[in-house]
Amino acid sequence: MFGPAPGAGGGTLSARILEAEQQLSGQALEGSEFQRDLQRALAAPPHAISPKYFYDTEGSRLFDRICELPEYYPTRTERALLAEHAGAIAAVAGTGADLVEFGAGSCSKVRLLLPALQPRRYLPIDISTEHLVDAAVGLRREHPGLHVQPVAGDYTAALRLPDPLPGARRVGFFPGSTIGNFTPEEALQFLRGAARLLRGGGLLLGADLVKDPNVLHAAYNDAQGVTAAFNLNLLARANRELGTAFDLDRFWHSAFYNAAQQRIEMHLVSRCRQQVAVDGHSYVLEAGQALHTENSYKFSIEGLRRLAVQAGFRPGPAWTDPGNLFSVHWLHAPE
Ligand code: AVJ
């Protein structure tokens, strides 16, 4: 293991060492945690596993394809909002900030903000190391002057970030309605942590809105079956990484809107009674038994602002599209 990485950036040696170090620590931790969480989900109710396990390299690729689907409105709607309001966002967030993105993926949305926001540094955090490093390399090539320092890790867990840049305000960026993956209690906890981390700056947050359930249903049951492949990739990933032998043909993708909870739920449903094994432990799945793989909560603008206030933020402007499909919020984090 390398020693502590100095706060260097660009394509310098220390930045590359930092990346290498994080690739190693990131992957090692994740493997065993995945096995344990999968075993827990199979063993007993509520038969649920965190959606963070979708995002290995293949899953991140599938997610990027989801974002291009005609039925999946969130990405294109949020991108339009960011592009249209970049100037207004920079006016409230300020230029020259230390910009931290939670779950940066392909770092594609931040590109819409960079010209207006002109951050002093960009810290993309993501759980999919290979995908993140590729994205950071591409971003550096496009913006040679930008200080990009990727952090491979799970931002839902305690995460060590590089020290803040002296004198620079921290601005958080959490787009894509990824906040919808948290339960309301987890979302509050995440926002509380973010308000602390970003004090004196703020958070730019994307949140999907409650709408016609038919529109929601189509977005998670696309005609090409990419969302189904994304969901099933959880089992494919287990086969690759944990040496399991899940037969993907024995599961189907289920996604539906749970109106009472204001969320889309995704499940992998066993098509038949079957026995599966993970690291020597076997489990019987009944026909129709579901493994709950994701919640995607939907919000109202006011509901999200209330949650932000509870977490210690002072909500600023919120931007939405004419169809009220999606919202982007500026949340000021007091000192
Ligand atoms: C990345 C959590 C925002 O909930 O819409 C897309 C993930 N799951 N299609 C979402 C997802 C199925 C996505 N988030």
Automatic annotation (TrEMBL):
Entry's EC annotation: 2.1.1.44
InterPro entries hit by this protein: EgtD (IPR035094), EgtD_Methyltrsf_superfamily (IPR051128), MeTrfase_dom (IPR019257), MeTrfase_EgtD-like (IPR017804), SAM-dependent_MTases_sf (IPR029063)
GO molecular function terms noted in the UniProt entry: L-histidine N(alpha)-methyltransferase activity
SUPFAM superfamilies reported for this sequence: S-adenosyl-L-methionine-dependent methyltransferases (SSF53335)
Top enzyme class: transferase
Keyword Transferase: yes
GO BP, one annotated term: methylation
Protein name: L-histidine N(Alpha)-methyltransferase
Pfam family for this entry, one: Methyltransf_33
Designated gene of the protein: egtD
UniProt keyword Transferase present: yes
Domain Histidine-specific methyltransferase SAM-dependent positions: 34-332
Keywords carried by this UniProt record: Methyltransferase, Transferase
